[in-house]
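Write out a sequence, fold above all:
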Amino acid sequence: MDYVAALFEQNELFGELIRKAGPSTPVPTCPGWTIQQLFRHVGRGHRWAAQIVRDRVTDYLDPRVVRDGKPPSDLDGAIEWLHGGARALVEAIADVGEDTPVWTFLGPRPAAWWVRRRLHEATVHRADAALALGVPYDLAAPLAADGITEWLDRLAAAQRNGDPAPLDTDAVLHLHATDGLGPAGEWMIRADKDGMSWEHEHGEGTTAVRGRAADLLLALLRRRSAADVSVQILGAQEVWTNWLNRTPL
């Protein structure tokens, strides 16, 4: 997958939604936020990641001190600021080298890690904006499936850093995208004394969750309920309920 092209595309689509929205529009899937706050979060986040890479930061960088961290007051200027942040990230990675280790909230990672992370940040927050505006949202199945994989990787890394496991040790959660993606659309998730782990495979779990990849992603991240997006929950319902209660937005 071309993560750079996908980042630019999702960022463009997010920006077009912002053009249609009143800045004070509430965002129900990000409680307490408005469209304006959502927009600043995404745009500043791109520049935050770009500065981490550009400066080869090795410790947490306070987003409040990010260079050019506030958008211009005019709408066209603000949208260009959004797009400029994504470009700044890609340019910073090209300058320092994709494999250069930099700080991330999961520990040191290659600089290129940030492109995929910012891509899926834009993808999910585009869903937040679309839901706030009551307009349709969809995502290509391979990109949605990659979003699920990226999110599971982050959860597993967080478990290794000491976060509690979202599954009990006797439970297995099987996610199955029904888009015909093959192994890339199936995830078997387990937990043991060392934390959570997952792999792409087909198998029998304590609970199976089936639906289109885009719908699975929204349900997993609690943007829509499983029932609202016609995602099936088969087997022990409490495993799915526990998963949702124990994982972050």
Summary: The longest strand covers residues 186-192.
